[in-house]
Amino acid sequence: CAVNMNLSISGKPKLTGSLAALASVLIWSGWIVFTRHGLTTDVPGVTLGVLRYAIPTLVMLPLLLRSEAAYRKAGWLKCAIMVCGSGAPFFLICSLGMTFAPAAHVGVMLPGVMPMFLALFAVLLFGERFGGARLLGYGMVLAGVLALGGASLLEAGAGDWRGHALLLLSAASWACFTLAFKRSGLTAWQAAALINAISVVIMVAIDLTQDGPSLWDLPWQTVAMQGFAQGILSGLLALAAYSYAVTVLGASKASAFISLTPALT
């Protein structure tokens, strides 16, 4: 109900947008598991962040250099919101939350509630109005999230509330990114190139100032596995697919697909 999919021949862009949204959801479900596995097996969150943002930056550097005019047109404020909402600040907050909460909680608290934040911000900031079907759809999403995670959340450990608070903040940040991107005028790849490039600078700067194991101290198998999951799948393909879905379907409809993530996780 929350996603009005017109799959007629004239609606082919909506079909491709829906498929892109589904692809991003599948990748993010795996990313949650891979990231928490890394964080709980002595892989520092900053190291995971370097892998996530360095690989896409190298791939998209030519596009970044050619898109200066597009970034100026979008404006520094929208670009900053996009970087904070889905880049290094988002990753650091989210990874810290994962150290307190189990993967099942992450799936519920992060992508499960993000559509609710997006709908709330769209109403408060831009005066967007939802019809009865959309409201019913969001109600069903919320009911599904509560049904899926309610019991495990009630049985949470004493320190899990810290993770829950950080994950809710991460969900709100991603909602801000979605709204800023929709109004930026950037393509999905231009947004991904900018977010990754600025984020890798932040991550490398943090990595150089902290103690503990670095990227070069990890087994090559771990680096290869996390590099593929973080850099290729999550940092490059998922971000571009989701941004494309937002362009085609709109912010609210694209975000509704994310409610599938808790069950997949």
Helix run count = 13
Mean pLDDT: 81
**Could you say which structural class the secondary elements and strand pairing correspond to?**
mainly alpha
Helix content: over 70%
- SSE order, one letter for each helix or strand: HHHHHHHHHHHHH
- The quaternary state of the protein chains shown equals single chain
Count of β-strands: 0
The major beta sheet can be summarized as:
none
- Proportion in β-strands: under 5%
Task: Describe the protein's topology.
Elements: H1 12-39, H2 45-66, H3 68-74, H4 76-86, H5 88-100, H6 103-109, H7 114-126, H8 132-154, H9 160-182, H10 188-209, H11 220-249, H12 251-256, H13 261-264
Question: Can you walk through the features of this model?
Answer:
The structure is a single chain. The chain is mostly helical. The protein is built from 13 helices and no strands. Helix 1 runs antiparallel to helix 11 and helix 7 (114-126) packs across helix 9. The longest helix has 30 residues, at 220-249. It starts with 11 loop residues before the first helix and ends with a helix. Residues 1-10 have low confidence and may be disordered.
